[in-house]
């Protein structure tokens, strides 16, 4: 007995992303249903409207956006998706807001494996849950092979600003203490060594994490925090320089106080890269009045993300606009802004 | 010039007729050509530059230097916490 | 980290500084030849710790800085040829040509790739048989054995689409040029430890004897550098020249025989222009005739190259130790790491870049 004939076209079950997945028709809906809806599910997204209609408590809103293009999209400690969620959550949190809602826009390269997309979406769902935020709106476009590097993700986010704090990069005052939540360089070196798989191998794990819970706890108990930033691209050096310039103050830091994991140190030595210039995705710099430093550190250390929190320096009226580091030998040198892409060197 | 980092040889292999190896620097492993250190064995330390191991580190020489320097420290009346004053125009 | 941390011990560093202070009675000008040593000195602020009667000047030991402008222009021209993959160490990507650098060339569509090792460049050639792979083979004697091996291996395997644009330079002729130049102030040298790992120190003995100067091969960590400076100071105070090895765990008198053998097999000595300094006789390496087919300069006809240096740039004087970067009128003004006029500002090893990054005077903006 022969099987009843059923038309084999169009192919219903794909293993890779096709142009049609971004065209708005049947395949687009399939993609939404298979990949995103079950994982991001919440009362807003489930309505499948063109927009999320949100009730916001009264007050001021913080709004931010960021786009993630990292390669490789999977690395020890996270995915491009975890970065996309945590990065935007953290940008909202360091400004003194409680992150509430995210949108997620995807640009996919034709041929991108659907299994990988599902893994990325899953990692985003987990990250969103950990941070206590909802992904309430999204979009997917597909571009021809060669037009983008696998997957690009844009996340935008809304948070409710606290009215009991006033955080600004212009708030630094001489005498303030500079606190760092943990070791530096983990994320950037994890990516670099993952990218150079043939020349370098390491088991360095990205520190990618959402910081909003820790930040909220710190602000609850130490509302007099002057500024907070997360040292992502450009590393600790970039953030400290920006703070020094914005507030027209100098910053002194102590080289021996800055935690760097052994493995990260080894990778930095090999590639000739300064750990202060390397991106972090789960670290916090907080600038607080000196008398509040001990309290703030105490709070940070209650959280996994802040277990290794330490004071690394202080704000000074001297050398305004510059960051100066005291070496282990007592000499001093400027910590400059990194120039751009960290290039490995032989010289 | 010549960023060359000391690390421990942990693996050896052959590639395209060249002796190759993996050198471990504090947990990060880098590939290195071993043609210029033919006598090297896993466990020894070498300096790696531009993907090549250039020299096997002489452990005896290293130990001897460290011993001499320790004598220097012991012979000084100098306290490690004393920091010499910096010139005013250091920046 | 073994073989690194021991040489960063603050107690030992400060003890060596104290000892240098005790021994250095007169004023001395000492040059560290190697850009890596310059970088380490600046980064660790070692020059701040030294007594004021020791003046450290920085030498031309930055192969990136001294690569002739013509070579950069040639690399840019070759990179622009369709079907060429230009492969380089990361250091070279931001070195300015007359108008642009390799980074900009990449953004304009040239296939420019960064590798850690010349063997990776060779692999790119194997993987892309339809393309021409050109490796920018820059370096001192430390890198020459690696660059030589890639060519030798290409010859052995018959990889025909691989070539090198060679800009290899050597230290001893530069040292002689500095010592011979009128108005030279340098009285003693720290020799480049990793160059000496390959070449040994025997070729410095005639230089030390002819000019009566101390030459001390030294390493790169703070303890190594200070120990080297101490040895130079001791010899200067005693009025004697000669070579004393301060990097015994890596440097031997004859260096690495296997590496020297392959270098000599693939390269031969030639006169070479140094950017900012001029031609130094017998200071460069070029591919031997037997390997001429791997010479990118011969393989690609890119026409006449007429490079133009900025008239404001004083790299040459800095490289010869005649000028401190902070004394250059363009330093920090027209010339910054973002807008470099010459290679000494771009290369992370360059003295100007090191000064700018670590020591910039806040009152000069």
Overall number of domains of chain C: 3
Question: What would the CATH topology of the largest domain in chain C be?
Answer: Rossmann fold
User: Helix/strand/pairing class of chain A, anyone?
Assistant: alpha+beta
Overall average pLDDT of chain A: 92
> Which percent band covers the strand fraction of chain C?
15-25%
Strand order of the largest sheet of chain C: 4-3-5-6-11-10
Q: Note poorly predicted spans of chain A.
A: none
So what's the CATH class of the largest domain in chain C?
Alpha Beta
SSE order of chain A in H/E notation? HEEEHEHEEEHEHEHEHEHEEE
Counting DSSP H or I runs of 4 or more residues, the number of helices of chain A is 8
Largest interface, with counts of residues having CB < 8 Å to the other chain, equals: B-C, 49 and 63 residues
| Rg measurement of chain C, Å | 21 Å
CATH topology of the largest domain in chain A: Phosphoribosyl-aminoimidazole Synthetase, Chain A, domain 2
Strand content of chain A: 15-25%
CATH architecture of the largest domain in chain A: Alpha-Beta Complex
Number of helices in the DSSP assignment of chain C: 17
Q: CA-to-CA gap between the ends of chain C?
A: 39 Å
Shape descriptor of chain A: globular
- CATH superfamily placement of the largest domain in chain C: HypD, alpha/beta domain 2
N-C termini distance of chain A: 74 Å
- In the CATH hierarchy, the architecture of the largest domain in chain C is 3-Layer(aba) Sandwich
Please give the structural blueprint.
The complex is a heterotrimer of chains A (347), B (91) and C (365).
Chain A: H1 26-40, E1 61-68, E2 74-75, E3 78-79, H2 80-93, E4 97-109, H3 114-131, E5 134-143, E6 151-161, E7 177-180, H4 186-195, E8 200-201, H5 212-221, E9 227-229, H6 235-247, E10 250-254, H7 262-271, E11 285-288, H8 293-300, E12 310-316, E13 323-326, E14 332-334
Helix pairs in contact in A: 1-3, 2-3, 5-8
Chain B: E1 5-15, E2 18-25, E3 28-33, E4 45-49, E5 52-56, H1 59-75
Antiparallel strand pairs in B: 1-2, 1-4, 2-3, 4-5
Chain C: H1 10-23, E1 28-34, H2 35-44, H3 46-49, E2 54-61, H4 63-66, H5 69-79, E3 84-88, H6 102-107, E4 111-114, H7 118-127, E5 132-139, H8 144-157, E6 162-169, H9 171-180, E7 188-192, H10 193-199, H11 205-211, E8 214-218, H12 222-238, E9 242-243, H13 257-266, E10 267-274, E11 278-287, H14 296-299, H15 315-319, H16 343-346, H17 351-359
Parallel strand pairs in C: 1-2, 1-7, 3-4, 3-5, 5-6, 7-8, 8-9
Antiparallel strand pairs in C: 6-11, 10-11
């Amino acid at each position: 007995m022969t099987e009843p004939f059923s038309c084999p076209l169009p192919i219903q079950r794909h293993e890779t992303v096709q142009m049609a997945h971004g065209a708005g028709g049947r395949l687009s809906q399939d993609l939404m249903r298979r990949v995103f809806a079950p994982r991001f599910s919440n009362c807003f997204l489930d309505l499948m409207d063109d927009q999320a209609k949100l009730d916001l408590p009264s007050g001021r809103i913080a709004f931010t956006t960021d786009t993630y293009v990292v390669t490789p999209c999977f690395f020890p400690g996270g995915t491009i998706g975890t970065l996309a969620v945590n990065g935007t959550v953290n940008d909202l949190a360091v400004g003194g807001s409680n992150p509430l809602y995210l949108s997620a826009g995807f640009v996919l390269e034709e041929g991108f494996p659907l299994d990988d997309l599902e893994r990325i979406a899953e990692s985003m769902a987990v990250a969103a849950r950990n941070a206590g935020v909802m992904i309430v709106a999204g979009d997917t476009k597909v571009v021809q092979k060669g037009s983008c590097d696998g997957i690009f993700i844009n996340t935008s986010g809304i948070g409710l600003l606290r009215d009991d704090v006033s955080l600004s990069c212009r708030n630094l005052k001489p005498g303030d203490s500079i606190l760092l939540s943990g070791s530096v360089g983990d994320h950037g070196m994890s990516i670099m060594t993952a990218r150079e798989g043939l020349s370098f191998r390491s088991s360095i794990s990205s520190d990618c994490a959402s910081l909003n819970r820790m930040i909220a706890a710190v602000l609850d108990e130490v509302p007099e925090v002057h500024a907070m930033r997360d040292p992502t691209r450009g590393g600790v050096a970039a953030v400290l320089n920006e703070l020094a310039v914005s507030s027209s103050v100098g910053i002194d830091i102590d080289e021996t106080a800055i935690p760097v994991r052994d493995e990260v140190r080894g990778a930095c030595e090999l590639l000739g890269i300064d750990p202060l210039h390397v991106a972090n995705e789960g670290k916090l710099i907080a600038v607080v009045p000196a008398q509040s430093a001990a309290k703030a550190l105490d709070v940070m250390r209650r959280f996994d993300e802040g277990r290794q929190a330490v004071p690394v320096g202080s704000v000074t009226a001297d050398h305004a606009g510059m960051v100066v580091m005291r070496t282990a030998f007592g000499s001093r040198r400027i910590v400059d802004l990194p120039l751009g892409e960290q290039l490995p060197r032989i010289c | 010039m010549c960023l060359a980092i000391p690390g421990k040889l942990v693996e050896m292999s052959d590639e395209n007729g060249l002796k190759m190896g993996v050198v471990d620097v504090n947990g990060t492993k880098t590939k290195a050509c071993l043609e210029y250190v033919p006598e090297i064995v896993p466990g020894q330390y070498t300096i790696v530059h531009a993907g090549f191991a250039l020299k096997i580190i002489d452990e005896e020489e290293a130990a001897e230097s460290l011993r001499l320097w320790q004598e220097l420290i012991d012979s000084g009346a100098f306290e490690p916490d004393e920091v010499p004053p910096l010139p005013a125009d250091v920046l | 980290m073994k073989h690194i941390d021991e040489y960063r011990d603050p107690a030992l560093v400060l003890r060596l500084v104290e000892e240098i202070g005790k021994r250095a009675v007169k004023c001395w000008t000492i040059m560290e030849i190697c850009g890596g040593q310059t970088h380490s000195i600046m980064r660790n602020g070692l020059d701040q710790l030294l007594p004021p009667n020791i003046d450290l000047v920085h030498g031309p030991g930055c192969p990136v800085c001294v690569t002739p402008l013509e070579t950069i222009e040639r690399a840019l021209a070759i990179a622009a040829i369709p079907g060429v993959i230009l492969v380089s160490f990361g250091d070279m990507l931001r070195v300015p040509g007359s108008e642009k650098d390799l980074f900009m060339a990449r953004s304009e569509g040239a296939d420019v790739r960064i590798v850690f090792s010349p063997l990776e460049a060779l692999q790119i050639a194997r993987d892309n048989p339809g393309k021409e792979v050109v490796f920018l083979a820059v370096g001192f004697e430390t890198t020459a054995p690696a660059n030589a091996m890639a060519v030798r291996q290409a010859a052995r395997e018959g990889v025909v689409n691989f070539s090198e644009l060679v800009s290899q330079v050597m230290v001893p002729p530069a040292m002689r040029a500095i010592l011979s130049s009128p108005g030279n102030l340098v009285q003693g040298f720290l020799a480049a430890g990793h160059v000496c790992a390959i070449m040994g120190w025997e070729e410095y003995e005639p230089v030390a004897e002819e000019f009566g100067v101390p030459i001390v091969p030294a390493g790169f960590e703070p303890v190594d550098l200070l120990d080297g400076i101490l040895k130079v100071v001791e010899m200067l105070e005693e009025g004697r020249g000669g070579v004393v090895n301060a990097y015994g765990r890596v440097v031997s008198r004859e260096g690495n025989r296997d590496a020297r053998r392959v270098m000599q097999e693939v390269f031969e000595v030639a006169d070479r222009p140094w950017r900012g300094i001029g031609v130094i006789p017998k200071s460069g390496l070029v591919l031997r005739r037997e390997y001429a087919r791997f010479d990118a300069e011969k393989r690609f006809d890119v026409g006449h190259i007429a490079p133009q240096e900025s008239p404001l740039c004083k790299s040459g004087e800095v490289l010869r130790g005649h000028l401190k970067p902070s004394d250059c009128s363009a330093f920090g003004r027209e010339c910054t790491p973002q807008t470099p006029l010459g290679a000494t500002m771009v290369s992370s090893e360059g003295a100007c870049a090191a000064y700018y990054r670590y020591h910039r005077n806040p009152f000069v903006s």
